[in-house]
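We treat protein structure as text, and this decision shapes the records that our systems exchange. Because each token names a local backbone shape, the row as a whole describes the fold. An entry from our holdings is shown next, in its original layout:
>
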Amino acid sequence: MSEGKVSRRKYIAVAGAAAAAAVIGGAAYYLSTSGTHAYTSTYTCTYSHTSAYSCTHSYA
């Protein structure tokens, strides 16, 4: 197995490109999923003849 010497400039260029790709990919993922959440709210209230009143609130 031969070992070649990698220049510092080449190493920094490759590492910087990999870091930039990770940041861009993370930002793209965040932007693609941040606006797709639709929250709904539901109230359910019941009243019976025995004066029992109850309300429930749920989020979906």
